[in-house]
Amino acid sequence: MFLVSGSSGHAHVNLYVGGDPDFAPVYLDGYARDDFRVPRVMAREAGSFCSEHVYVSEAEARRSRIHQELLPRFGIHDIHGSNLSFDGNIGWFGIGSSRRDRGIESPAVKLLTALSPHLLRAFKLGMARLGLEDAPGTRTDVADLIASAVFVFNGKQLAELNRFAGQLLNEGWFRLSPAGTLSCTDTLENARLAAFQQSADAASGQVTLHLRHPDSNTLYALRRWSAGTARIGPSRQILTVTPLTIAAPSPEQVADFCRPFGITSAECRVVHAVLSSLPLSAFASRTGSSLYTVQDQLKSAMLKMAMPSQKLIFAAFERYQALQR
Q1: pLDDT digit string (tens) for 263-299?
Q2: What is the 3-state secondary structure (H, E, C) of the chain?
Q3: Are 40 and 53 in contact (CB under 8 A)?
Q4: Burial class of 7 by CB neighbour count within 10 A (0 to 12, 13 to 18, 19+)
Q5: Which of residues 194 and 148 earns the better pLDDT score?
Q6: How far apart are the C-alpha atoms of 304 and 258, rounded to whole Å?
Q7: Contact criterion met (CB below 8 Å) for 84 and 91
Q8: What are the tens digits of pLDDT across the range 71-87?
Q9: What is the pLDDT of residue 322?
Q10: How far apart are CA 302 and CA 297, in angstroms?
């Protein structure tokens, strides 16, 4: 269970019971930047308790380094939890089984489902009553571990942003004006975004909007906390942008990833199909190639990369992407 300030990274609550104390540093150093689950958890209704299987498919778990390496290493299975994020703070409460075949018993799930909304209210009450301020000297890079863009404004001026926000702006679809207004290049979605920001200026509390990138089909959840919330203050505003769907990697990204291995352009296109979760049969049909030729090209690429399985290719590409952030 934890509660962390989304702007400063200060941990208000950090409780890990019955587990290996090495888990947190290992996760933060080697896996946090690749954790695709974070935006999906944050997109869920706060206080709603559920199994991880609701937002992580079996196929995703099979190719995830977190599920294939980290969690088994520390004996963590069948994770259930609840999003406890509010007012610019990022929180989570959950439980896991120490054995793969044990699972979480139904009475425990029922109890924790009922408990989660009360924990959320307790977090909110504690923050409001104690008036906690971000402690000096805390880690300012924790917000960079969050797979969401975080923009912090003082009035209309941008005060700070995390690394993901900078990356999002560099991609070009979202833009930030000197006046502190976020826009996007799609005319229809930009009109909705402008109306959202105007309503956020006029209202108190959390406002949410979903935008879809027409080219990549990526769905973004925008949340803004404005003046009047207990935690932020009269002139402080926080805007988060969270991708709810992960876009397929670009051919340029895959080509850069493949280049050190001496892979041919034809083999690189097959690797791109694999990393885009496109079946080889569909790729062969789309390119007018024989399925046997495509399979041979993939085998040749895997031999050059010394990666005998597609799962290892996914894991290596995740590491490559983490280095680019």
Answers
A1: 999 999 999 999 988 889 999 999 999 999 999 999 9
A2: CEEEECCCCCEEEECCCCCCCCHHHHHHHHCHHHCCHHHHHHHCCCCCEEEHHHCCCHHHHHCCHHHHHHHHHCCCEEEEEEECCECCEEEEEEEEECCCCCCCCHHHHHHHHHHHHHHHHHHHHHHHHHCCCCCCCCCCCHHHHCCCEEEEEECCEEEEECHHHHHHHHHCCEEECCCCCEEECCHHHHHHHHHHHHHHHHCCCEEEEEEECCCCCCEEEEEEECCCCCCCCCCEEEEEEEECCCCCCCHHHHHHHHHHHCCCHHHHHHHHHHHCCCCHHHHHHHHCCCHHHHHHHHHHHHHHHCCCCHHHHHHHHHHHHHHHC
A3: no
A4: buried
A5: 194
A6: 10
A7: yes
A8: 998 888 899 999 998 87
A9: 67
A10: 9
> C-alpha distances in angstroms, 296 versus 174, 190, 261, 292, 302?
40, 45, 17, 6, 10
151 neighbors 174 (Cβ within 8 angstroms): no
d(CA 83, CA 46): 5
State mean pLDDT over 146-174.
80
Q: Residues of the chain with pLDDT > 70: what percent? A: 81
Structure tokens at 163: 């690394």
Name the pTM for this structure.
0.42
Look at the block and give the residue holding tokens 């206080």: 47
- Range 18-21, long-range pairs (CB < 8 A, 24+ positions): 19/74, 19/76, 20/74, 20/75
Residues of the chain with CATH 1.10.10: 251-324
> What CATH architecture does domain 251-324 belong to?
Orthogonal Bundle (1.10)
Judge whether 150 and 165 are in contact, CB under 8 Å.
yes
Among 293, 291, 297, 306, smallest CA distance to 270 is for 297
Longest pairwise C-alpha distance within the chain = 67
Structure-block tokens of residue 281: 């049969």
